[in-house]
């Protein structure tokens, strides 16, 4: 068999672990050939690829990033790919294509699959927001990095009587905020799924101070937003090139809390450190399993599918099912996190 | 409600997170009272306990060990507890008892529940070998510690052309060896579930050297054993007090491989570092959820049950079901790990 | 002997290790009594203090923050303290006072010492900018946190062909930027000690891209600034309360580089995570030694001094000497860092 | 200039950082050429080497091990090297040779230097026992790994009322035990420099238990030994191949303490994890500076020297001076560590 593989979308710890696993399983388990396309779908369209052998993937299991590179692709070129699926498969002699990526990539994968490309997708997102799988690799690493940061900030907040606002990733789903907030013992957690009342946060902090706990840590997803009327409108900022730039919610909330509480409040915006670097053991295992199962699926001819974790098993689910709706944090999980003091 | 809580058995990162979560949920969510028995069931029998308030559990979320202490209990005294269940519950005014522990503790919990104690168990084991739950807290931390060790050993093995044998915990189930071996990219993994052939390991190492990869890392569970006839009988050692002591499998296997390969092989026995210290974010979240759900179960009157992770949900399963058989590594999972080079 | 101790100024990993060491050495080595003033000099003036025994300092060696709290003090009240030194010493029965703090605290300590208080200072700053000591505790932790962040960002930068600008702490001295930049392998390092030319950075990045290294990481101290004319004037931003806020150099530089290079440049502002949490082994050892030597100095009657690391030895230097000038990064050290690609 | 470089002796985090730094400085700073000999002096004698360019050292700064490999060399072959120094230098066109290694390597380097080879040595040892330099790279990483292990073990010891004996590296000098013991807050530290009395350890543990601290952690260097008569003679063990094997001091001491105290005592032997893997930020900086200064020394023609850290400066010291005596832990440093409870 000749298997193509590519990585697309933003960075996510575990991408290299999938690539390595696919190569190991395909070469050593089946005697296949594997080619890796560079910079996502671009490499597929433009013919940039290389053969991947065991040496090529040696030592990459624990390395962040992706040895194949990744790049955004315009919609138009994706359509081009879909229209020329058969020609593309023929050009590279592909018996299977394994794209690794997030929602956008999997939607593209589905388009290609519908157009006749033998595709097995591997879901990838640090945001954990793909509904067809219990978890995605990269998420555990992001939560771990965010939790370590909260651990550090908490001791400073406590000894220096401060409010700390930590902004973590998560534009549409608050999984990272939820889990790092719980793991770090944050006293408030704000998610995109539910507009927050600044008053509630103010009250929580004041109650803490009243009972002698003169500090608080609030974990806020970048996509969280205040309930209407809960926070004054912010004015945009003009950068040195005349572009308007808006403060993120972390910065705004810290200003707001300092204003209302009359106590020092400091924002920390974790940013890209959450999505790079050495993956946790959990993410390496999950990524390795996904790679293994993607190859097996290809050999069984189960195309148009995506690997997914369900309980303790890695299974396959139709791509169609995987990308229809975002997996957001359900009420029950928010409720579990509420008794965090 | 008045809820008793105790921790029993060996150490496990996340115990304090459960205690904290129970106290938070019971006090702040329900206005309950919580008392903590010291040193496991001993404290229950001997009347050593203290009231747990929010201050008592402040700052313990990320701390290893257990603020309640833990101790082994003799079978006879357990029977004593079971026989006096009603009296014990009355003495402390207990409406619910939440014991946190491994297989032994949960078996004891079941005895007490059968004898009339209103019990909700919380499973705890770094070995991940309790069948009724997808995962137990403590396991992720153990795997993380073992993986970090393998990461470190691998670079030495590679640059100094050595075989490294890493012995990890797991007497009856090989989960830690399986997952840390996969995450660390070990070239051989030996589990208690399947006797290993030393010849297979020798062959694997020789093939690696032959294709220029002049090193290997082998991850072996402490409970793994060679297939009959696969390794010579080892003589015991006599320590300074005349007791015979047997070398663990890690030491023996390193000697054996060095002998057969004619290459340096070094054992590293990770031991207790795997079961102590700061829990990972994953384990903190799971432990916190278990504590929360144990309190809810108590309030719903669901006794004789144990918290369990199933997929993404925390549910309750009968204690009877939980302790009947050990969850060992299934063939499918071993198979997934085999294409690791 | 009766020894007073206090911590003042911003957070710094290792403060608790000094407190613990002072208590251990004083109590167990000399049979002294130790009292801890709360919230820095405020506690001394306002009479907020508690006796510190072995239990009080148990388990704090590796904990961030300070169990004594810390707070800023107005100049006026400091003068008040200096004027009432003898009365203060008498009130608490102090034979020695050990203030732990940065430049401001040590200047205050010197004032008190000049006014007759028996003071032995312990220097504390994550910035490493106190000239009389080779290193200060807290610095190694800050560099470690920043380096881990750069390690993570580098893999993303590499696989996604990006320029990453990491802003680390250091308003007047660039030690953290220098050492984390070297340790993380940053391709550009900007320090407060030397205005940087944006053109140089642009050229460096372009040369890297030209030879196939399509990414770059630039480590910039918060106090670094562009050479005059090197970067357009930035307009301030107006926040929701009408206060003008200025973008930090990290954000501005990322905007500038993206504009000039036509490539994605992303800022990451590490902020307070650098100054909190578990201290590194190095910082714990140094802090412990400083505490031990401060007690010994008190017993030898060497007041008006400060502990200092010189080579491998901890010695004492006059407070007067310690606070006269800031220790900035010398040319030689910048030169060493320049051949980082 | 044409510069040869090689790494010899046991593994040590930071070796790759030196190699990278030498290549960067030599190529980019001076336009030199650098060749790397494989497997230490063997590569020099047998002609195994390769040119090192910027790509070759890309990404290795934070990687453990050595990309050049390392191997032991017999004395006889070293003499061969010394006798043919001029011929060797001519064969490879070497203007300078930079060997990176421990005591043995530096002694060899001195022999070659005396025989006319233009040598600049770089000291390397995790044991920190080279007297001419304040610190060696690798040491900080070893201490960090050992401290993290003690941190983990302490929580288990505390909650399970145990004595833990942690054996760390250090055959002739106890630096790792000293600093990790201090940083981890070990209650007893045993060094090769001073035979220990088991009675003292027993008394310390009993006093701790008496005052309610029912646990203890003892940090013992592998080269520590009991005072004569302090511990019964141990019998050797016979392995499966008839070789006598002696238990290390960690195992023996745990047996002894359990016997005398009547309490559970558990040994943990950290072993090779201390000498491999990602170097700490401190070690990366020191290694990078050593590499930079070695190249500068070569260009200034300062041969027969070794790089050394003295205070905050990297300087050069004669190889002759560097290898005459082992740097052991002085009484003063032991004394500082004694008030650890």
UniProtKB/TrEMBL annotation, chains A, B, C, D:
<keyword id="KW-0547">Nucleotide-binding</keyword>
<keyword id="KW-0460">Magnesium</keyword>
<keyword id="KW-0067">ATP-binding</keyword>
<feature type="active site" description="Proton acceptor">
    <location>
        <position position="127"/>
    </location>
</feature>
<protein>
    <recommendedName>
        <fullName>ATP-dependent 6-phosphofructokinase</fullName>
        <ecNumber>2.7.1.11</ecNumber>
    </recommendedName>
</protein>
<feature type="binding site">
    <location>
        <begin position="102"/>
        <end position="105"/>
    </location>
    <ligand>
        <name>ATP</name>
    </ligand>
</feature>
<feature type="binding site" description="in other chain">
    <location>
        <begin position="272"/>
        <end position="275"/>
    </location>
    <ligand>
        <name>substrate</name>
    </ligand>
</feature>
<dbReference type="Pfam" id="PF00365">
    <property type="entry name" value="PFK"/>
</dbReference>
<dbReference type="InterPro" id="IPR035966">
    <property type="entry name" value="PKF_sf"/>
</dbReference>
<feature type="domain" description="Phosphofructokinase">
    <location>
        <begin position="2"/>
        <end position="297"/>
    </location>
</feature>
<keyword id="KW-0324">Glycolysis</keyword>
<feature type="binding site">
    <location>
        <position position="162"/>
    </location>
    <ligand>
        <name>substrate</name>
    </ligand>
</feature>
<dbReference type="InterPro" id="IPR022953">
    <property type="entry name" value="ATP_PFK"/>
</dbReference>
<feature type="binding site">
    <location>
        <position position="103"/>
    </location>
    <ligand>
        <name>Mg(2+)</name>
    </ligand>
</feature>
<comment type="function">
    <text>Catalyzes the phosphorylation of D-fructose 6-phosphate to fructose 1,6-bisphosphate by ATP, the first committing step of glycolysis.</text>
</comment>
<keyword id="KW-0418">Kinase</keyword>
<keyword id="KW-0479">Metal-binding</keyword>
<comment type="pathway">
    <text>Carbohydrate degradation; glycolysis; D-glyceraldehyde 3-phosphate and glycerone phosphate from D-glucose: step 3/4.</text>
</comment>
<feature type="binding site">
    <location>
        <begin position="72"/>
        <end position="73"/>
    </location>
    <ligand>
        <name>ATP</name>
    </ligand>
</feature>
<comment type="similarity">
    <text>Belongs to the phosphofructokinase type A (PFKA) family. Mixed-substrate PFK group III subfamily.</text>
</comment>
<feature type="binding site" description="in other chain">
    <location>
        <position position="222"/>
    </location>
    <ligand>
        <name>substrate</name>
    </ligand>
</feature>
<dbReference type="InterPro" id="IPR015912">
    <property type="entry name" value="Phosphofructokinase_CS"/>
</dbReference>
<feature type="binding site" description="in other chain">
    <location>
        <begin position="125"/>
        <end position="127"/>
    </location>
    <ligand>
        <name>substrate</name>
    </ligand>
</feature>
<feature type="binding site">
    <location>
        <position position="266"/>
    </location>
    <ligand>
        <name>substrate</name>
    </ligand>
</feature>
<keyword id="KW-0808">Transferase</keyword>
<feature type="site" description="Important for substrate specificity; cannot use PPi as phosphoryl donor">
    <location>
        <position position="104"/>
    </location>
</feature>
<dbReference type="InterPro" id="IPR012829">
    <property type="entry name" value="Phosphofructokinase_III"/>
</dbReference>
<keyword id="KW-0963">Cytoplasm</keyword>
<feature type="binding site" description="in other chain">
    <location>
        <begin position="169"/>
        <end position="171"/>
    </location>
    <ligand>
        <name>substrate</name>
    </ligand>
</feature>
<comment type="subunit">
    <text>Homodimer or homotetramer.</text>
</comment>
<dbReference type="InterPro" id="IPR012003">
    <property type="entry name" value="ATP_PFK_prok-type"/>
</dbReference>
<dbReference type="InterPro" id="IPR000023">
    <property type="entry name" value="Phosphofructokinase_dom"/>
</dbReference>
<feature type="binding site">
    <location>
        <position position="10"/>
    </location>
    <ligand>
        <name>ATP</name>
    </ligand>
</feature>
């Amino acid at each position: 068999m000749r298997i193509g593989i590519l990585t697309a979308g933003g960075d996510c710890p575990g991408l290299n672990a999938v690539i390595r696993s696919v190569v190991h399983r395909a070469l050593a388990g089946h005697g296949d050939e594997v080619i890796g396309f560079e910079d996502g779908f671009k490499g597929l369209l433009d013919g940039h690829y290389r053969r991947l052998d065991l040496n090529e993937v040696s030592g990459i299991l624990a390395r962040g990033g992706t040895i194949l590179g990744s790049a955004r692709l315009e919609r138009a070129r994706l359509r081009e790919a879909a229209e020329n699926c058969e020609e593309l498969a023929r050009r590279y002699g592909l018996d299977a294509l394994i794209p690794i990526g997030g929602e956008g990539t999997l939607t593209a994968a589905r388009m290609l699959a519908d157009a006749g490309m033998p595709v097995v997708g591997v879901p990838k997102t640090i945001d954990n927001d793909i509904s067809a799988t219990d978890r995605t690799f990269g998420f555990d690493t992001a939560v771990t990095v965010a939790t370590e940061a909260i651990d550090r900030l908490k001791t400073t907040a406590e000894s220096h009587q401060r409010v700390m606002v930590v902004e973590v990733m998560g534009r549409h789903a608050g999984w990272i905020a939820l889990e790092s907030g719980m793991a770090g013992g944050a006293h408030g957690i704000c998610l995109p799924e539910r507009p927050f009342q600044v008053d509630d946060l103010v009250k929580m902090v004041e109650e803490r101070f009243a009972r002698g706990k003169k500090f608080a840590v609030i974990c806020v997803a970048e996509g969280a937003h205040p309930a209407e009327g809960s926070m004054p409108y912010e004015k945009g900022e003009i950068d040195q090139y005349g572009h308007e730039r808006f403060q993120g919610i972390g910065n705004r909330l810290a200003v707001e809390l300092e204003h209302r509480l009359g106590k020092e409040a400091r924002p920390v915006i974790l940013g890209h450190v959450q999505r790079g670097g050495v993956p946790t053991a959990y993410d390496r295992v999950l990524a390795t399993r996904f790679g293994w199962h993607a190859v097996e699926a290809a050999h069984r001819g189960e195309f148009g599918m995506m690997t997914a974790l369900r309980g303790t098993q890695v299974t396959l689910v139709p791509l169609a099912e995987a990308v229809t709706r975002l997996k957001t944090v359900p009420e029950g999980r928010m409720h579990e996190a509420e008794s965090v003091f």
